[in-house]
Design goal:
Blueprint: H1 3-18, E1 23-30, E2 33-37, E3 48-52, E4 58-67, E5 70-75, E6 87-91, E7 96-97, E8 106-109, E9 128-129, E10 146-147, H2 152-157, E11 160-161, E12 165-170, H3 176-186, E13 191-199, H4 201-218, E14 220-226, H5 231-250, E15 255-260, H6 262-275, H7 287-297, E16 301-302, E17 308-316, H8 325-333, E18 336-339, H9 342-346, E19 359-360, H10 369-393, H11 403-419, H12 429-439, H13 453-474, H14 477-508
Parallel strand pairs: 8-14, 12-17, 12-18, 13-14, 13-15, 15-17
Antiparallel strand pairs: 1-2, 1-6, 2-5, 3-4, 3-6, 4-5, 7-9, 10-11, 16-17, 18-19
Helix pairs in contact: 3-4, 5-6, 6-7, 7-8, 10-11
The structure holds adenosine-5'-triphosphate (ATP) and magnesium ion (MG).
Length: about 500
């Protein structure tokens, strides 16, 4: 430990011994819930208490509620050795971490203590409150220019800007963690702060070594709270992650802050709420969970200065139900969602992004006209294919019946190929647009794609303008709409016919 931090600790100790001390006693322990009397007048929700165990060691607890004049506490560690009458002392210091740049490349627990066996971590000068507040809304900058995510499906279809907050939604085992590791390695941010919350212990080491790797860890700080740790610690891991992201943002670094997963944070909150006697609301989640989610997620985003915290939060959608309460609440708070779909993963296409069900709310505003036109064309082709996919697969669609469907069938394998990306491959923003344009046979000026929106707009104006003028000449808008409507009608009737044939076949059999 460095000299100044030893001195600071000593000063803190002196302050604590000279300050007034508040003591209470344990009156009951049920499961993880500890009841303490004697501190009710000085303790408030979120306050911390050190409970002495029989062998003289201490376990820190957090106040989660009050019942019949007694304080209800949940521990941050094991309650082994805690019994009736044990002494409980109020902690007066505010929970905080004191990070420094030396924390980069390290793995810490929810208390900010190193857990990677690489030795002690130096304490920084300024404390960062674990329950910090987001910057005032009216002083916040707007989201910045595009952030290169290194994954072409996201770069092209779900472009993310600096300071944007996106959710990655999927059922279990569909690829959230692998996608996050790709983002940690390939995103053009200065620093990553990654919170692994509620993961299985075995998976954490595997993820750190096999997915994130040395290269990714070098510019990251990872905060870990595994599923076997008490709920207050799992919840705190998310707060520590945000506090660390705020530290690096205040050091003028562009931060990518990731939490895997927000659902497990919400589950820890649910356990705490239920222990405190809160009534369960939706799917057992207590009202405090829904009050807390916006508070924590709002801490990511643009700052008051140039640096921003871009947030990427994974959300486990239980049973594939994208409308379950946590997914629904998080979707409403964030600026976009990336949906990973099991059916896509099952056919071996990774990352299993369902482009049509995903959205980035900063698009199309951050794109140039040429980029928007390219994306719109790709989406149209995908949507037509999805519309007719069932009929195409069972062979009920006859080639040549609808030129739009024929086109969608032609480009389908090329688009699928474009969306697939090996986890060891990085694809820049410029490459993403160029590769998509190539897949769709659209002429493309590569140098336009990597520029910031303002510059891009000028650079693309000629290309986009020329393309629009050409289209307008060839096909006036009204006529185009009529054609589209007609073709849509034809597709519907085709679908009806095919269903009729199928039903007929079924009846005959
Ligand atoms: N990009 C990818 N390339 C190849 N395989 C992948 C990819 N993404 C995911 N997988 C496969 O899917 C498995 C599960 O992925 P992952 O652990 O990321 O899922 P998850 O959604 O985080 O699961 P959980 O909800 O259990 O945390 C991986 O072990 C791997 O086999
Ligand atoms: Mg995972």
């Amino acid at each position: 430990m460095s000299e100044p931090s030893v001195l600071k600790r000593a000063l803190d100790d002196i302050r604590q011994t000279t300050a007034e001390r508040y003591m209470g006693r344990v009156t009951s322990v049920v499961g993880m819930l500890v009841e303490v009397t004697g501190l009710e007048r000085v303790l408030s929700i979120g306050g911390r208490v050190d409970v002495e165990t029989g062998d003289g060691s201490r376990v820190t607890c957090e106040a989660i509620g009050f019942r019949e004049g007694k304080a209800l506490l949940l521990p941050f560690g094991s309650l082994e050795g805690v019994g009736l009458g044990c002494r409980a002392e109020l902690k007066t210091d505010e929970p905080s971490v004191r990070p420094t740049d030396a924390w980069l490349g390290r793995v810490v627990n929810a208390l900010g203590q190193p857990v990677d066996g690489k030795g002690p971590l130096p304490d920084g000068r300024s404390p960062y409150r674990l329950r910090g507040a987001p910057p005032p809304a009216h002083q916040r900058q707007r989201v910045g220019g595009k952030l290169d995510l290194g994954i072409r499906a996201l770069n092209a279809f779900l472009t993310c800007c600096r300071g944007q907050r996106m959710g990655i939604f999927s059922g279990s085992g569909v690829g959230k963690s692998v996608t996050l590791s790709m983002l940690a390695r390939y995103t053009s941010s200065d620093v990553n702060v990654i919170g692994l919350i509620g993961e299985r212990g075995r998976e954490v080491q595997e993820w750190l070594e096999d997915e994130l790797g040395e290269e990714g860890l070098k510019r990251s700080v990872v905060v870990v709270a595994t599923s076997d740790e008490p709920p207050p610690l799992r919840r705190q891991a998310a707060y520590t992650t945000m506090a660390l992201a705020e530290y690096f943002r205040d050091r003028d670094k562009d931060v990518l802050c990731m939490i895997d997963s927000v659902t497990r944070f919400a589950m820890a909150m649910r356990e705490i709420g239920l222990a405190a006697g809160e009534p369960p609301a939706s799917k057992g989640y207590t009202p405090s969970v829904f009050a807390e989610l916006p508070k924590i997620l709002e801490r990511a985003g643009p700052g008051t200065g140039a640096a921003a915290i871009t947030g990427l939060f994974s959300v486990l959608v239980e049973g594939g139900d994208h409308d379950e309460p946590i997914a629904d609440a998080v979707r409403g708070i964030l600026d976009g969602h990336i949906v990973l779909e099991r059916a896509i993963a099952e056919r071996g296409r990774y990352p299993a992004v369902n482009v049509l069900r995903s959205i980035s709310r900063t698009m199309p505003g951050c794109n140039t006209q040429a980029q928007n036109d390219l994306i719109a064309r790709a989406r149209r082709l995908m949507s037509t294919y999805e519309d007719m996919g069932e009929l195409i697969r069972i062979g009920a669609y006859k080639q040549g019946s609808d030129p739009q469907v024929d086109e969608a069938i032609t480009y389908h394998p090329r688009l699928e190929n474009f969306l697939a990306q090996d986890k060891n491959e990085r694809c820049s923003l410029a490459e993403s647009y160029a590769q998509l344009a190539q897949a769709l046979d659209v002429p493309w000026q590569t140098e336009n794609a990597g520029k910031q929106p303002g510059q891009q707009q000028q650079a693309d104006a000629r290309q986009a303008g020329a393309a629009r003028a050409q289209t307008a000449q060839q096909q006036p808008q009204q006529a185009r709409q009529q054609t589209q409507a007609r073709q849509q009608g034809q597709r519907q009737s085709l679908r009806r016919q095919a269903r009729g044939q199928q039903a007929g076949r079924g009846a005959a059999e």
